[in-house]
Amino acid sequence: MAFFTTRVSRAGKHLHGGRFTYAVLTLFTIGSLFPLVWTAIAASRSSARLAETPPPFWFGGNLLSNLGAAWSDANMGKALFNTVFVAGTIAASTVLFATLAGFAFAKLRFRARNLLLLLVIGTMMVPPQLSVVPLFMAIAELQWTNQLQAVILPMMVSAFGVFFMRQYLISALPTELIEAARVDGAHSLRVIWHVVFPIARPAMAVLGMLTFVMAWNEFFWPIIALTQDNPTVQVALTGLGRGYIPDQSVITAGALLGTLPLLAAFALFGKQIVGGIMQGAVKG
Amino acid sequence: MTSERLDTAPTAPPQGAVPLPPLRPGPAAGREQRRAARRSRRYQRDARWSPYALIAPFFVFFAAFGLFPLLYTGWASLHRVSLHTPTRMEWAGLHNYTRLLEDEFFWNALRNTFTIGLISTVPQLLMALGLAHLLNYRLHGSMFFRVAMLTPYATSVAAATLVFAMLYGRDFGMINWALGLVGIDSIDWESGTWTSQAAVSTIVIWRWTGYNALIYLAAMQAVPDDLYESAALDGASRWQQFIHVTIPSLRPTILFTVVVSTIGATQLFGEPLLFGGSQTGGASHQYQTLGLYLYEQGWFNYHLGRAAAIAWSMFLILIVIGLLYWLVARRLRKSH
Fold first, then answer.
1. Which value does ipTM take for this structure?
2. Cβ–Cβ under 8 Å, residues B81 and B89
3. Where do the DSSP E strands lie in chain B?
4. pLDDT tens, B100-137?
5. Among all residues of chain B, which has the CA nearest to that of A212?
6. Do B291 and A220 touch (CB under 8 A)?
7. Does residue B138 contact residue A14 with C-beta atoms inside 8 Å?
């Protein structure tokens, strides 16, 4: 039998990848990383060097001056501060509300639970374009145009987040643990604080990172709600490309500035982010 | 959620036993009992209503910033609304919709959204499936490959598109330079219809292939080993196992990614806006999508009512596509 099983050719996770596997994966890795590396190369060159053939393949010496130009042209300092604030607030509130609602959907019984959960999942299908006109009318009425709360408030909760936390807590949080706490006389808030939050912490961290990345990159609504005077990074970047003769190396420097913080996060927490996406996927 | 209402709640205890202190003889017993009863009542109230309190924040925000605007968009689409005076609405009936039906740029945007969606989603998901299959082998540095392939996901639409627009540059872009090496003449990517749509699609493909590959990989790792083992014993080659074991096991996940990608493709906006740097999507609107057309009508031509009508048309199209997928999924399930 052992002889036979070594002979059959079996797909799946126990088999070592061959040379072909490594070759294809390496090719795709290069394809994934090259545009980013080239962004850094272009940002370190002069605009004149970018308008030559062949285009540059290695770093030049103009990185700091280009970054400086992008910083001042595109209001980048303010944009980065705004984006950190916006994405941080959105991530924090999404994680908090998603954990509370996810816990309720995962472990508590109440009327209309399944119907409400279906509604949560259904909202994931609605594109943001569908609400942009009334939202714009509302912020015009409230005179919130160009103010950060106009971007933050519509994104404070996320259906994906609720679903993600629910799926995690269903298996990670033993029902007996909640019951034991209940028997000890703990009311809901105590249960949440002392049992749910500690157990949910890894998933909360992952959801926080995913939400932060998404909010950092949000484009459609901020470009309508904000202007270049008080931009997020994404809004500021569109301003960079709009000059009469756009300076290509300054544009790439701006793109680099706007992407670098997330790339740093990927370098540090890449493993956890990958794990989080895969976890959300299996159960989703 | 008033307390009067709570006190009338049925007394059947929900899950878990209500802690009752042991009854001790003596004068204190009556007080103890009353306290226990009070605690038990408070407990039931808590258990009955706390779920609603926990989900309330989500639904309050969702109602205010999701559901209400969605419905109000439908209402606004029946009005003439100018961007200058967004709060003054003038009844127009179905005028916005009839105008859209006669508008060649609407049909053009619809067609472009469809083709760009197709040529970005299909290769993207096929490549993701293949990559996931390869990533499912035991590999040295498998985490490195996964993180590297997910990195484009961290790049914003704005940054990615600005850089790709340069790579696709007509005179000094790297892509034309590389094509020149193999003897192909420079292509003016931005001004052609097919070339610009293909270029916009590659940005989408670049950003999302790794993400989808990880989703497929997660589903593949959940496929039980014995399915492969018995297939292998039946003499199935690796390719046959991929077709007859992996793909069928992944069917729900594939459907999920198809739905999500379709929704994403319908909303395509940032890539065509920044690829050529204007809301028209090229000199002859050759890569203007519905999302971009909505933006142009609302925020450049100041017709918010018409923008709302475009938004609702997108919604109707999505519903039709959703129904189609549902029918296909049902048919597939039945045939197996």
1. 0.89
2. yes
3. 79-81, 89-91
4. 999 999 999 999 999 999 999 999 999 999 999 999 98
5. B154
6. yes
7. yes
